[in-house]
Specification:
The protein has 88 residues and is an alpha+beta fold. The chain has a domain of 54 residues. The chain is 17% helix and 41% strand. Strands 1-2-3-4 form a four-stranded antiparallel β-sheet, with no helix packed on it. Strand 3 and strand 4 form a beta hairpin. The N and C termini lie far apart (34 Å).
């Protein structure tokens, strides 16, 4: 079995990186090339446990809509984002 290991060194606190990873406004700013927008559920700020967000963006030449829910959350260590694609 082959394995690829990547290490990324970030000069910021764990809390800062964790919060950026769940910041909806930051994600939309970083995903401008896909025209991704939060269109339902929590649409700005920091997403939290059991909250949902519906995204719409252009991927592979098609507009996709998908909903995500934060199903587990342990600050500042991890969270689980479960996604279902609704429309193509």
């Amino acid at each position: 079995m082959n394995e690829i290991v990547l290490h990324t060194h970030i000069h910021a606190s764990v809390e800062k990186v964790f919060n950026l990873s769940r910041d909806i406004d930051f994600h939309m700013s970083a995903a401008k090339h896909t025209q991704e927008k939060a269109i339902a559920g929590r649409t700005s700020g920091l997403i939290k446990l059991h909250e949902t967000i519906t995204w719409r963006g252009k991927h592979f030449g098609f507009y996709l809509t998908h909903e995500s829910i934060i199903s587990t959350f342990k600050f500042p260590e991890k969270f689980t984002d479960e996604t279902n694609i609704n429309k193509i």
